[in-house]
Amino acid sequence: MNDRDRLLELLIERSLEIRPVTLSSGRKSDYYIDCKRVTLSPEGAYLTAKLMLEQIHPQVSAIGGLTLGADPIVSSISVLSHLQGRGLAALIVRKEPKKHGTMSYVEGPALEKGSKVAVVEDVVTSGASLLRAIDRIAAAGYEPVQALTILDREEGGREVIEERGFSLQALYDRSDLGLDKKKAE
């Protein structure tokens, strides 16, 4: 089994729940996928980092994303990039600014202004979280150049992100989860 197939197997086995749920976007869905159940496991963290790192442009010097879904992804990509001699810095984007000290939205090592950043998310539904991270990374003086996710739920987020000039790169989309097959069973 290749790495992509193995990560998908882990996501379906450990993260996917077929049940009615209200998503963070406020939308209703007939399934929920909690990628952190996989991205916080050793094998899942490694596979996610490996597959995403393969897609990150050579000119990128940092990886960032909105806390909490992106945190394990950002950290594992940064560590793996070091092992591969690439050294991508990790940036964590807060939902609210820090209440003391720098009062910053973006945490991580200081980078040169204009540094190119790949922005990641675990799941894209409406695209709002990914775009919030992109905006905050840009406001910090860096240049977001890529948008990546583990799963595109195919509920309009890709189109919203593309309207902002970014091409969403997803490891998987809704059809990869086999939901239509599961419903038929």
TrEMBL record:
Domain of life: Archaea
GO MF assignments: magnesium ion binding; orotate phosphoribosyltransferase activity
Residues the entry annotates as binding 5-phospho-alpha-D-ribose 1-diphosphate: R94, K95, K98, H100, E121, D122, V123, V124, T125, S126, G127, A128, S129
Required cofactor(s): Mg(2+)
Reactions the enzyme catalyzes: orotidine 5'-phosphate + diphosphate = orotate + 5-phospho-alpha-D-ribose 1-diphosphate
Position of the signal peptide: none
Positions contributing to orotate binding: T125, R153
A Pfam family that the UniProt record links to this protein: Pribosyltran
Pathway as given in its UniProt record: Pyrimidine metabolism; UMP biosynthesis via de novo pathway; UMP from orotate: step 1/2
Domain Phosphoribosyltransferase, residue spans: 93-160
Keyword Signal: no
Keywords assigned: Glycosyltransferase, Magnesium, Pyrimidine biosynthesis, Transferase
GO biological process, one term: 'de novo' UMP biosynthetic process
Top-tier EC class: transferase
Enzyme Commission code: 2.4.2.10
Similarity-based family: Belongs to the purine/pyrimidine phosphoribosyltransferase family. PyrE subfamily.
Task performed by this protein: Catalyzes the transfer of a ribosyl phosphate group from 5-phosphoribose 1-diphosphate to orotate, leading to the formation of orotidine monophosphate (OMP).
Subunit note: Homodimer.
Protein name: Orotate phosphoribosyltransferase
